[in-house]
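Translate sequence into structure tokens.
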Amino acid sequence: MSERNGLRYGLLGLALLILLALLALVINRPDSSPTPAPTAESTSIESLAALGDQPPSRRDLNIQTWQTAEGAKVLFVEARELPMFDLQLTFAAGSSHDDGVAGLAMLTNAMLNEGVPGKDVGAIAAGFENLGANFGNGAFRDMAIASLRSLSAADKREPAMQLFNQVLGQPTFPDDALARIKNQLLAGFEYQKQNPGKLASLALFERLYGTHPYAHPSDGNAESIPAISREQLQAFHAKAYTANNAIIALVGDLSRSDAEALASQVSAALPKGPALPRIAQPEEPKPGLQHIEFPSNQTHLMIAQLGIDRRDPDYAALYLGNQVFGGGGFGTRLMTEVREKRGLTYGVYSGFSAMQARGPFMINLQTRAELSDGTLQLVKSMLADFINNGPTAEELNNAKRELAGSFPLSTASNAAIVGQLGSMGFYDLPLSYLEDFMRDVEALSVEQVKAAMAKHLNPDALVIVTAGPSVVQKELPPPTDNPAEQPIGVPEH
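Result follows.
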């Protein structure tokens, strides 16, 4: 499943949980008499666990932006509904900046909260926990992030920020923690050898990107990780975790002056230095098919080509078109034909991963090994047909209605909003992006979507990787409303 689909289903699940919670409140209410307005004392809480991630009743975003004295861009949304705030720092410090040392960016990010002067990893974890605060971090191809969720009361907020600033600005990268995380990564690499889907994904990115920094995985490999030293982590932190290289996103129970103070504190705590240069665009790969022999009952099929970067003006058209083709779950062309009518797969998905440079357009599925050749040709023919003919008016209108219903959930919580702000700042999108996107989607015509798909996708330029056994192939079953053989219930891993 693509990241975009995972986010979409996660947001739908959040909405369901919220509705269930509201229903429970109604059922358990002792009577219908009016209740007094809550006092400051009655809303006082001591832990974020008491809040959950409940959204307020409405979201009218008023995004404010400024720059800190050290050069960090700040995006802020005041949200007074809950006594908490979310802070996320987004750095241009992903694996595309590894400079030939695969895994360096990920290791640096993973080690941030393993030690600061006077505190080891246990003391750091206890420090956040005792304040009812949550720390998070992660590294990807484009970016690395670090986040803090804290209560907004000064007696909780200030010590939480002090600890957060230490973690971001003064990591000690202790040798024992480095050895432990390296061992965990090496164990994961061994597991990958037994995962055909992972093997196919690694090979696909290598073929798709060649010598480009996107080619290698964010977590490195068994050859690169053991050699990475503490000194390399310190050097990468000093150059990549600077204020000039950071986007600061803040959402929550803060005034503008509070937000300015927090942003100033964290910006001043970071190393000094310039922003890192943008990643260059990749070269077009050579199309073709690579097969990875793997003993299994199923074959993994991964079909890809270069897509778009995040600022491409056709982003909305391609997003909407893909929702029809294979990005919207059940009801898409791929799911209807490949799963529901032919019973060839448990799930098939497509998606554009728009990044700082051109990210991949990918189609991902697995099917019975003896039907893999036919399934591959079927999917390729469906893609070619969609590129040449585009969606129908009915398909496009259905996709628009679905997006109009689900998109508001992307700002249903403080955490969701802070993530949106981080992306908007990192990819230099306008402050009106969230409103612009749905306006642009609603205005799209069939011809505009068709033109965008034809412009950016070429059915003759596909990079394909398959992973599975070499077996005698069978003809595909014909499409029917009741396929004779249903897809396997749980995909192989």
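Note: Residues 1-43, 489-493 have pLDDT under 50 and may be disordered.
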